[in-house]
Write a structure and sequence with these properties.
By secondary structure, the protein is mainly β. The protein is built from 2 helices and 31 strands. β3 and β4 form a beta hairpin.
């Protein structure tokens, strides 16, 4: 009888393990296949076929002093604001704020994690062996807090926190209690936010930034793009961004990756760019058929003579799996281009606008993967925007992106010209220990006239003070 029970128990365990491992990830054969020239996605297709980078290694009198505020993983981004009205800039992550100058941590809301999906048995095994036995799958769960922005939403004279949480988790503003030890009242703005690279920029020409993000009415709905305005008289206004001529694939993942604001067509009005859902580029520069994807492109802002606003849709193909998208005339030809990186693939790119909605892709740097957060700011003070980006460690929980356990680089790139007048990008190393999350913030944190950097990643919360040797 006992032997029979043991056999039954053994069979139940085997059945449980097989069920847990349904569609086993033994198929992850080409995972992390990284070489100096090419790498493959999880379906084995080439992402990039040739190494024609447009960056050059460079040095300057600029370096960065690294300060760790927290070694815990509870956010994918960090922002900067004077939370307690003492004249000093504090650091905010969505769950906590760190009080300058000693960086004392205060709670905004209890940190929560969402693993998104139940991991398979092989996922646990994979994480364990890839990390040398130091990590487990539960330490890879996403925190809810991905992005934080700031405004005095209720106009009481104190800065509030605007938090865009992980995909489908929600979009809130947290009311500043004016006391470091008090609870922050939470106010829902929208359910089911659907983007991993929202931006806080002035799209509507109000003189103040709006949060641009994707959202859906229900967890199953496809969703749309929205601009959330925080007007001078308090509260917020939700503006829908859509177009009658869309005719694009509006699958359930729309819009998940890549957002940017800028004047694409030079008519004086800001437009919205966004990338498609997750995906990789194959060796011909086309979206690899790893999964269904939505078309990337841009919404042209149109104002009629009465000031009524509408939007016109234009496709940019391929434009997949991007981080934040930065509009700038890279080659000084009078047409605005854009720069972005592949959040779950490999490479930092710029897309040259060669004609009316005609685009030519250039590889800036394909030496690392997962540049899932980027910012454009004038680091060296020469009047031209620089790109700040790096590698997002374990952007897909360490399970399916190429080289997820690679060195977490953090760089800034200066746009220069070669001897023929063509764009080149000077690459400057900031750090190689923490990388970026989904949001990187560039701000003069210590008020010394030099731009600094704040990040929240799987390696904690960190700031990098800009210093000069000269």
């Amino acid at each position: 009888m006992i032997k029979k029970l043991i056999k039954i128990l053994f069979l139940l365990v085997i059945l449980f393990l097989l069920t847990w491992e349904f569609a086993p990830s033994l198929i992850l054969g080409p995972y992390n296949d990284m070489s100096p020239v090419t790498t493959t996605s999880t379906n084995g297709l080439y992402i990039i076929n040739e190494n024609d980078n447009e960056f050059v290694e460079a040095t300057s009198d600029i370096y960065f002093e690294h300060v760790e505020l927290d070694d815990q993983y509870h956010t994918e981004g960090a922002s900067v604001a004077d939370i307690n009205n003492d004249g000093l800039n504090d650091i905010v992550t969505g769950h906590y704020w760190y009080e300058a100058p000693n960086w004392t941590r205060h709670t905004i809301r209890a940190p929560l994690q969402d693993a998104v999906a139940i991991p398979r048995l092989s996922d646990h095994i994979k994480i364990y062996f890839e990390s040398g036995g130091e990590k487990n799958i539960w330490s890879k769960a996403y925190p809810l807090a991905f992005f934080s922005f700031h405004d005095d939403v209720n106009k009481d004279g104190w800065v509030d926190v605007i938090a865009v949480d992980i995909t489908s988790a929600g979009f809130y503003w947290f009311e500043n209690p004016k006391d470091a030890g008090s609870e922050w009242p939470q106010h829902l703005i929208m359910n089911y936010t659907r983007n991993e690279s929202p931006v806080f920029m002035d799209l509507l020409g109000t003189g103040k930034p709006q949060v641009i993000t994707g959202a859906a009415e229900t967890d199953e709905a496809s969703g749309k793009l929205y601009a959330i305005e925080f007007p001078d008289d308090g509260g917020y206004i939700i503006h829908t961004i859509d177009a009658e001529n869309e005719g694009r694939n509006t699958g359930a993942t729309l819009p998940t990756h890549g957002l940017g604001v800028g004047d694409v067509n030079g008519d004086g009005l800001n437009d919205v760019l966004f990338g498609s859902g997750e995906g990789f580029l194959d060796k011909d520069g086309s979206p690899a058929p790893r999964q269904s994807y939505d078309e990337g492109g841009w919404y042209e802002q149109v104002l009629d003579e009465d000031g009524n606003r509408s939007w016109r849709w234009h496709i940019i193909d391929p434009a997949v799996s991007f981080s934040q998208m930065h509009v700038i005339d890279v080659n000084d030809d009078g047409r605005n281009d854009f720069i972005s990186g592949m959040g779950h693939g490999r490479g930092l790119f710029w897309f040259e606008q060669t004609g009316d909605n005609e685009w030519n892709r250039h590889i800036i740097d394909d030496t690392y993967t997962q540049p899932h957060a980027s910012e454009m700011a004038d680091i060296d003070g020469d009047g031209v925007g620089d790109i700040i980006t790096g590698k997002t460690p374990l952007a897909h929980l360490g399970l399916k992106d190429p080289d997820e356990f690679g060195t977490p680089w953090l760089y800034w790139y200066k746009i220069i010209k070669d001897s023929n007048g063509n764009p080149l990008f000077e690459r400057h190393l900031i750090d190689d220990s923490v990388g970026v999350g989904r949001q990187v913030t560039v701000f003069d944190i210590d008020n010394d006239g030099l731009l600094d950097i704040a990040v929240g990643t799987r390696h904690g919360v960190h700031i990098f003070y800009q210093r000069r040797t000269g």
